[in-house]
């Protein structure tokens, strides 16, 4: 296939066919913006379908994925790259596709990845967030929720709360099945 | 020339014209929008984070909540991605049932859109009619899946239940009824001078920029570009069904509305064909015990066509019994933020909600 051959020739990277519609490429982070520009301008991949980020905490890397689509050939390229998790920084590509700006803002907030040159407000979804970026694997959602939010009194465990209410108020709990029965 | 004073106007997060809990910060000069900025954060429930803590099947209780008006294509995209990762085959009958469910989901979402689009233009009657008629589709869903809105029906390997007795006849009758009703809708909305005047030439997406901006679905087909995931990368039984993809030129609210109007007819046509040619056999390629079910390590990208445009799922497995990463690409992610911010300047304040509805913006898709 031309594209696979060209990528090998121009960037010395191996692309493989994933299925009938998809081609998968892995590249060093320094090459990503050049490959994306090349795919857009030379091979008609004008549509940025998606960008994703995966936290591989055990390998101390973040994997960034760029998914681009060619409307003429109906092919999709998935471009993977890995960046250092301890100093997460990646080139900004919103000059190639405007909507990449939204993804990059989200990754900056949710994973703590910096995109030098990204012009946008720092706050995107979270407001006044001071904790670790929450989509990182080591962010403990349950612990955060327990520490931040109060439990409603009487609901700390799976006990039948209605019995407690009866004791506290002397009020009788209606028999809902009987009350709303159609018979 | 004197410059008119600019005022900041906040549309939402609580506003009848907004499509969910989101806010658009508008800078206006007189009645004209000078700039727009989408603000999120009112709805974030960390769905994707929660999915990472649940097994492959438990995720379905969360998946359907990504977009209330149309949860089925999200379930289907996820199921397709899991099947790609696992190499799990789907019985032919299940493919046909999935096609029917996906198209029913499209029709009910179109009917809901009729209400939003006409209501934001000041025409309230059509919304009452179409939302009423939508209940007939929800009845079909209830008979088939046990639920009206959140179905959790299209699992990896097929569908959860076979078609119940008498369901096929009921589906045919509902399609006949809806087909007749479409003429009434046309008279009420598309022949209405108010709607025509308000929709034509408003909220224009330029054809030469649409693909680059990430526009998908009816807004893309409203610029004259023929792209539909069901044709380009067929899934379920779409490659065995004959249907057309309507396109209109103009890129305005009117063109997008016409595309949707014609797509309902196509959906009815697809459902009839799928019912006519429904094969026999099994409806489910059973998965192992869900608590112990592991999916081979790897990544998959699968997408389906919803009413708002393509819905993609990027799914990563590390070989365990839970997804390592499940990342949704909803149509609204581009439409509701970068596209909206580009097309609103120059429009009238009263048209902002109107344009928002025509793009099919669903906030929970943007902040998952």
How would you characterize this protein structure?
With 183 residues, chain A is α+β, with helices and mostly antiparallel strands. Chain A has one domain: NADH:ubiquinone oxidoreductase Nqo5 subunit (Beta Polymerase, domain 2). Chain A is 30% helix and 21% strand. Chain A contains 6 helices and 5 strands; from the N terminus they run H-E-E-H-E-E-E-H-H-H-H. In chain A, strands 1-2-5-4-3 form a 5-stranded mixed beta sheet, covered by helices on one side. Chain B has 14 helices and 6 strands. In chain B, strand 2 and strand 3 form a beta hairpin. Chain B is an alpha+beta fold and 368 residues long. The radius of gyration of chain B is 21 Å and the shape is globular. In chain B, the strands form 2 sheets. A 3-stranded antiparallel beta sheet of chain B has the order 1-2-3. Classes of the chains: A alpha+beta (183), B alpha+beta (368). The interface between A and B is medium-sized, with 32 and 36 residues.
The helix-strand sequence of chain A is HEEHEEEHHHH
Gap between N and C termini of chain A: 70 Å
User: What's the overall geometry of chain A?
Assistant: elongated
What's the CATH H-level homologous superfamily of chain A? Answer: NADH:ubiquinone oxidoreductase Nqo5 subunit
Spans of chain A of 5+ residues with little confidence (pLDDT < 50)? none
The geometry of chain B reads as globular
Category by helix and strand content of chain A = alpha+beta
Question: What is the element layout, followed by pairings?
Answer:
The complex is a heterodimer of chains A (183) and B (368).
Chain A: H1 2-11, E1 15-17, E2 22-26, H2 32-43, E3 47-56, E4 61-70, E5 75-84, H3 100-110, H4 141-148, H5 161-169, H6 176-179
Parallel strand pairs in A: 2-5
Antiparallel strand pairs in A: 1-2, 3-4, 4-5
Chain B: E1 6-11, E2 23-29, E3 32-39, H1 47-51, H2 60-63, H3 72-86, H4 92-119, H5 125-145, H6 167-190, H7 193-199, H8 207-210, H9 217-221, H10 229-232, H11 253-276, E4 298-306, E5 309-317, E6 323-329, H12 331-343, H13 352-359, H14 363-366
